[in-house]
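Q: I'm building a small set of examples for a reading group on sequence design. Run inverse folding on the following structure and report the sequence directly after it, with nothing in between.
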């Protein structure tokens, strides 16, 4: 009876406090495609801001065969007193056709539990204070379909090192479909687990009172002037006509402070949009010339000094 109850207690009691404390982070879908210079700048920004916790959300399977290198560099580089929350979306609303969710989960599991020389021969999960998994970023599944996909992921995870770690929770990233899921019951053999589920919403038009929130898809701009170059609400050119909205960083920070959950900042640079500078203004462009996320190349250090300063201002504003 004791072995049956323990996983349930671990899933409920260990997950929520860490998530609640990880107030700020970065929503970087194509993080695996960043250059080493961009990753180093991100690590420096986090270390200099020194938040109690930091969340990095990504779609690792855009990264090809070396999809885990940047994540390992983040785990290795961020100061040990900063709790790291690793959020992994195992698919994207625009993704490779015919992908196998189970195989992706198995590959993620292997990364999490396998000791790495570049991490002092320790497995990556040891460095994570919290692990957040989601079947898809911005899904339109029914609740029942989402539960089936989440369980397909859980089926591939090591029971001792992951399911019982006390670090795992699930996230429901919704697009248009409303969901009030708060937990998922899962069975492995004779063991019963209950994992917490946080709903994540995107866009600056609606700020949830709790849960997870990101401006993902809408542009948060800074008034920072760096080396004579500035940006404003017009610094994004989205020729896909997706209805992108704008919000000043100060307003975004204020709204993030008003809600009880985690807020992750998204910037076009995080998705390696094309960057141009003209007339002392920087701008990012998304059009038909922009490759698919898995084909993008970070040739201009997408997370540059400007992005470093903006992320630091965001994290410092939440402290």
């Amino acid at each position: 009876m004791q072995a049956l109850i323990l996983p349930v207690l671990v899933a409920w009691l260990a997950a929520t406090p860490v998530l609640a404390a990880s107030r700020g982070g970065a929503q970087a879908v194509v993080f695996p495609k960043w250059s080493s210079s961009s990753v180093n700048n991100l690590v420096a920004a986090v270390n200099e801001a020194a938040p109690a916790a930091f969340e990095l959300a990504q779609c690792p399977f855009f990264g090809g065969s070396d999809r885990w290198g940047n994540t390992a560099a983040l785990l290795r580089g961020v100061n040990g007193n900063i709790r790291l929350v690793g959020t992994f979306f195992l698919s994207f609303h625009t993704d490779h056709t015919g992908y196998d969710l189970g195989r992706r989960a198995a590959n993620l599991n292997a990364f999490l539990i396998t000791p790495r020389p570049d991490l002092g021969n320790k497995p990556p999960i040891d460095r994570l204070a919290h692990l957040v998994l989601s079947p898809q970023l911005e899904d339109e599944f029914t609740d029942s379909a989402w539960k089936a996909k989440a369980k397909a992921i859980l089926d591939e995870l090591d029971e001792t090192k992951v399911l019982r770690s006390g670090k795992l929770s699930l996230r429901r990233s919704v697009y248009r479909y409303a969901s009030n899921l708060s937990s998922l019951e899962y069975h492995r053999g004779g063991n019963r687990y209950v994992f917490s589920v946080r709903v994540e919403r995107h866009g600056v038009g609606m700020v949830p009172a709790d849960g997870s929130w990101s401006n993902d898809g809408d542009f948060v701009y800074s008034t920072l002037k760096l080396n004579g170059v500035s940006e404003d609400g017009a610094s994004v050119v989205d020729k896909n006509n997706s209805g992108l909205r704008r919000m000043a960083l100060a307003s975004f920070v204020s709204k993030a402070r008003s809600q009880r959950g985690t807020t992750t900042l998204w910037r076009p640079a995080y998705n390696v949009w094309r960057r141009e500078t003209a007339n002392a203004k920087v701008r990012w462009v998304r059009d038909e010339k922009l490759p698919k996320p898995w084909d993008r190349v970070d040739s201009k250090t997408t997370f540059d000094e400007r992005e470093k300063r903006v992320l630091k201002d965001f994290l410092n504003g939440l402290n």
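The chain is about 30% helix and 25% strand.
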